[in-house]
């Protein structure tokens, strides 16, 4: 068993180092789907989350509870819902997106939308509790406050974006259901790993696994760098006496 | 409640010699926070603020000074009672610990007029003039968050000035500053008050020396209620305080000890 693993690992390393065309295509497709899905989810989730962080309305607690519940929805459930929407008898069946790149983007967008919205809401709400009334005092209404606070917390929100991308690229259930794992069309890293493992082609599965891990590693490194960067930058509030930078 | 004999001899007062119309009026106003259990942050507050007055709000921590400022400024709505604000009276507030956005000092100041509908280019011109008033014109392009605490508080004053306020609310503006910065900010407030005798100042402070220097009227709060509302001379005369406002007297006595 150990020999088999070592051999597979060696072959996997050879595939990665040789930039095997099958491997490269799958990785590129994965990155494309997840990046696009993440961009779409952020386009909706960032402003929506920022608004939720500032706005006060009846039923807000209920909305937030529902939003937080969506964080725990399994990706296969999202895949199933999107499948039903896009199937020929579904309300969006006429689009003809099922088993396509677009379907996978759509599914992953829905999957990470609650992540982006909920985390943005938390970041902006914390900022609003801390200094939102100062912007209100200057005359900023709810929307402007949401925008200004989100812009002011841009480094924290960048972490949210990276986390959402990580969630998208590492999921398998949704893209498997709506993409169909069609070779050359909808096969992405996670679905390929599942398939190749079931077929016994461990080197390719391991090679893809290594790349997936590397992507996640790079994302984590980015988050750590941003955190370090933020810690070095002085915060917007006046420092306590003695700690200020005199000029 | 207000003292009949308002003093005319201190540093900044009177701001104006003729009676001015009220800019704010509170009638039995109260603010309640939370439900279980409810906290009466302000209760049964009735008072009028007239143009050009310099009012100090004093009292122990949690007595309702900041709540009263926020109620007057419109950041809070009254839970009970009424708040009347004169129409077309611009007001601005400077906070104890001002928060600056992650941009330049100039942009931070320009943000105020821009948020109130002024075009960005004109807002920047107003901001530049306001920075000159507070002596920070040379630091306009620096990131606001890199300024010292005292400079940030002056920047907050500039941000308020750029709104051309007729009423300026100050929530313990010097309490988190070192003595040097404290003097700078206080001098700046005095300068602003001198430049515009019709500027109404309402400020919360624990510094009774500052109250003596800046205020013409003192409102003493305790547990959300106004216990004393007197001219500054009457408030500090001692006898009146001791006779009629025991708690306020103890507060003042404690400060001087």
Give the terminus-to-terminus CA distance of chain B. 27 Å
Structural class of chain B: alpha/beta
**Oligomeric assembly:** heterodimer
* Most extensive contact: A-B, 29 and 35 residues
The low-confidence runs of chain A, each spanning 5 or more residues with pLDDT under 50, are 238-247
Are there runs of chain B of 5+ residues with pLDDT below 50, and where? 1-12
- Main pleated sheet of chain B: 6 strands, mixed
Averaged pLDDT of chain A: 89
Number of helices of chain B: 9
User: Could you please say which CATH topology of the domain at 28-189 in chain A applies here?
Assistant: MetI-like fold
CATH superfamily of the largest domain in chain B: P-loop containing nucleotide triphosphate hydrolases
Shape of chain B: globular
CATH C-level name of the domain at 28-189 in chain A: Mainly Alpha
- Give the terminus-to-terminus CA distance of chain A: 67 Å
Number of helices of chain A: 10
Q: Please state the average pLDDT score of chain B.
A: 88
């Amino acid at each position: 068993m150990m020999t088999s693993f070592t051999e597979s690992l060696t072959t996997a390393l050879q595939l990665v180092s040789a930039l095997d065309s099958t491997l490269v295509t799958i990785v590129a497709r994965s990155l494309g789907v997840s990046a696009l899905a993440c961009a779409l989810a952020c386009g909706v989730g960032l402003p929506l989350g920022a608004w939720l962080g500032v706005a006060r309305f009846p039923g807000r607690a209920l909305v937030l509870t529902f939003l937080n519940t969506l964080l725990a929805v399994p990706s296969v459930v999202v895949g199933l819902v999107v499948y039903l929407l896009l199937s020929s008898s579904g309300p969006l069946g006429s689009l003809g997106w099922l088993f396509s790149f677009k379907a996978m983007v759509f599914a992953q967008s829905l999957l990470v939308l609650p992540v982006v919205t909920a985390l943005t809401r938390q970041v902006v709400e914390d900022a609003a509790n801390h200094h939102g009334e100062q912007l209100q005092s200057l005359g900023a209404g709810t929307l402007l406050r949401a925008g200004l606070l989100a812009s002011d917390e841009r480094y924290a929100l960048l972490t949210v974006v990276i986390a959402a991308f990580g969630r998208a690229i590492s999921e398998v259930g949704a893209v498997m259901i709506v993409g169909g794992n069609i070779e050359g069309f909808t096969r992405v890293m996670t679905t390929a790993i599942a398939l190749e493992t079931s077929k016994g082609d461990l080197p390719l599965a391991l090679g893809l696994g290594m790349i997936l891990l590397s992507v996640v590693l790079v994302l984590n490194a980015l988050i750590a760098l941003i955190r370090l960067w933020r810690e070095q930058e002085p915060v917007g509030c006046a420092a306590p006496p003695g700690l200020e930078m005199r000029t | 409640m207000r003292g009949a004999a308002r003093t005319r001899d201190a540093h900044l007062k009177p701001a104006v010699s003729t009676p001015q119309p009220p800019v704010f009026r509170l009638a039995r106003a109260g603010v309640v926070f939370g439900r279980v259990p409810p906290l009466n942050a302000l209760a049964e507050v009735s008072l009028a603020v007239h143009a050009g007055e310099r009012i100090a709000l004093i009292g122990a921590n949690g007595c309702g000074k900041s709540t009263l400022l926020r109620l007057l400024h419109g950041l809070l709505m009254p839970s009970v009672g009424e708040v009347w604000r004169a129409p077309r009276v611009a007001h601005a507030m400077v906070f104890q610990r001002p928060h600056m956005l992650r941009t330049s000092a100039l942009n931070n100041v320009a943000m105020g007029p821009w948020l109130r509908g002024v075009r960005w280019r004109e807002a920047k011109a107003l901001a530049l003039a306001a920075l000159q008033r507070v002596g920070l014109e040379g630091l306009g392009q620096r990131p606001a968050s890199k300024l010292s605490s005292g400079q940030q508080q002056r920047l907050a004053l500039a941000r308020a000035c750029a709104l051309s306020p007729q009423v300026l609310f100050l929530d313990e503006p010097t309490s988190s500053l070192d003595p040097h910065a404290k003097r700078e900010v206080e001098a700046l407030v005095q300068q602003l008050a001198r430049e515009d005798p019709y500027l109404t100042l309402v400020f919360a402070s624990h510094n009774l020396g500052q109250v003596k220097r800046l205020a013409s009227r003192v409102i003493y709060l305790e547990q959300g209620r106004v216990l004393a509302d007197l001219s500054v001379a009457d408030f500090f005369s001692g006898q009146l305080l001791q006779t009629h406002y025991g708690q306020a007297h103890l507060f003042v006595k404690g400060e001087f000890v």
